[in-house]
Amino acid sequence: VRALVSPILAPTVHGSHARRVYMLAVVVAAAGFAARARTLTPESSRWPQPHTLARRRQLQVAMLEEEAGPSLPSIPTVLYTALGATAVYGLSEKVPRLLSDGPSEALAPLALDVFFFGFACVSLAKGMGLIGKIDYAALDGRDVGSLAKEAGAWAAAGEVPTQSPDGFEVATFAGGCFWGTELHFQRIPGVVATCVGYTQGGVPAPTYEQVCSGTTGHTEALQLLFDPSECSYESLCAKLLSTVDPTARNRVGNDRGTQYRHGIYSHTPEQAEAARRALELEQAKQSAPVVTEMLPARVFYPAENYHQRYLQKGGQNAAKNAPEKVRCYG
Length: 330
Fold this sequence. Notes:
Helices cover about 45% and strands about 10% of the residues. The protein has about 325 residues and is α+β, with helices and mostly antiparallel strands. Mean pLDDT is about 80; it is low at about 10-15, about 35-50 and about 60-70.
């Protein structure tokens, strides 16, 4: 945007240099898009056929380990960097001229450069987690049906719990946009408390901006407490699989990217066995490979408070067995 607008405002100041910077920004952005395109590759093109479910699980773990190394810059990071670089270039030309000649017709483009440079710096700082850290102690608690504060305490201690202090079992699932996933599970009798957050990544205590960059390895997820005397873990797995296309990798609905992959993350060997059975039953219904992750639970980092119970706060019904359709957007 800056590369397009600035030459229009000050064509005599930038001249051919602006065109060079513009083309550089376009090339860098295009390279970023091409490099990140692999994360959106349909799953069916990446799994050799055929595979047993167990073999796919082994390949899935190997693929995650492969992708756990240094990751490519995300598309927003590439664009913000290009934006900041072009703004710096513009400032390097205009500031000396302003100091030597005084205010001129280049004042408006100078202000534009300052604005875009500041915007790029703030955006990059958020993406790197330098600002906007989450205060886990300030998150919602059980008094409003939220597990966020307890999950924050577990995350701060590096714990992967199996039970809450009052004896409820802990479960973790990922089903795309966590707003909708949370509301689906809030409505299930026997689910005591829920919270949304991030898991299965390599960066401690990530923020929403970091996870959305697609470079931390996290997926948007839900952690909950449930009473196994009222609802079984198998039924919770079945519910998750009913809300996603289990054959679509890194995609749920129109949300695409590694942060939207779906998964079942077991906290105990018993949960792992139940998850395996649920995925085998699902595979029997599908002609394409089921690619829902089945992995041991890792530290779960609760999301910012404004994400917690988001759809309920927006007016959607979270009552048990509520029949209304879950609307993640709109």
